[in-house]
Amino acid sequence: MKPKILVACPIFDDVLAQLREHFEVTDNQADASWTPEVWAERLQPFVGALTTGANPVNAQVLARNPQLRIVANMAVGYNNFDVPAMTAAGVVATNTPDVLTETTADFGFALLMATARRMAESEHFLRAGLWKSWRYDMFAGAEVHGSTLGIIGMGRIGQGIAHRGAHGFGMDVIYHNRSRLSAELEAECKASYVSKEELLKKADHVMLVVPYSAESHHTIGAAELAQMKPTATLVNIARGGIVDDAALAKALAAKQIAAAGIDVFEGEPSVHPDLLKVPNVVLTPHIASATIQTRRAMAQLAADNLIGFLTQGQAVTPLNNVTGRHA
Ligand code: 8YV
Questions:
Q1: Domain CATH number, residue 29
Q2: Which candidate, 63, 54, 52, 64, places its Cα nearest to that of 85?
Q3: What is the C-alpha to C-alpha distance for residues 72 and 48, in angstroms, rounded to an integer?
Q4: Please, which residues bridge with residue 234 across strands?
Q5: Which residue of 68, 104, 240, 260 could cross-link 265, Cys pair, CB 3.0 to 4.6 Å?
Q6: How do residues 159-214 score in pLDDT, each as one tens digit?
Q7: Rounded Cα–Cα distance for residues 156 and 174 (Å)
Q8: Are residues 65 and 115 in the same domain?
Q9: Closest ligand 1 atom, CA of 287?
Q10: Is residue 158 part of a domain?
Q11: Active-site residue flag, 326
């Protein structure tokens, strides 16, 4: 008998076919959305699951699913996992590091450019038939090249963005991170370590790439927005909840900062209604890793984690060290 697994999100047909070679698979190609309660209930016959970051795996879910042995996130971020609870219960947690780094860094830069150069706002203006003449100050935005880029969160993606800024656009890159990079890495990224306060004060563009945790909740709120330059822009490709979206909408409406580019939202797929009302924000639906090649690599790695662990006892990119289920 093949082990039973749940693929909780739509994925590529050929990756699903590979999984079917090893497992009895229940898929969700229809893209039904489940509440945490329904997800916990659905999991009950399965030893493994492949999911997006939308489905939580916490002590409650684990208690209801003593048969579960592995959950593979199709995401590098894993704030939907309570990893210590998973480890305590003997359930393997995996994510998809590395395969999305460059694509996500590309998108961070694209959102920075779109935000600084007011691309969404000006496109809406054009589509609405409002373009009647040329004006010297029409949608004049903020300089990107040669400006100061402040990156909060200097993991792999943050470093990719630093490279693009420093080497591609001649930006001065400053960063803040829980721990400072080695001198070699700082030199490679041409990035200097500063306090969060200094970063907020000095940066022309602030980029958020920090993982979500209780500690990073509302890294940017009203107080931080007040420290930024009135000409500055803010980009969040990290996670909903890193920014206080209500405070951001207020700051944008009051022109306390110039503009923002936001790919991730508190309570997504809902978006704070006040963010939808302000023109100086570029809003995208959590697509920073969305290229076909990268999404394919993410799906493949998540599948390989399930196959590796459930057929050979070894996941490819485990987040915890688990020998067997002992719930
Ligand atoms: C995922 C992401 O597409 O990898 C992450 O952490 O945010 C995205 O790349 C999304 O989380 C779906 O799981």
A1: 3.40.50.720
A2: 63
A3: 8
A4: 206, 260
A5: 240
A6: 999 999 999 999 999 999 999 999 999 999 999 999 999 999 999 999 999 999 99
A7: 15
A8: no
A9: 3
A10: yes
A11: no
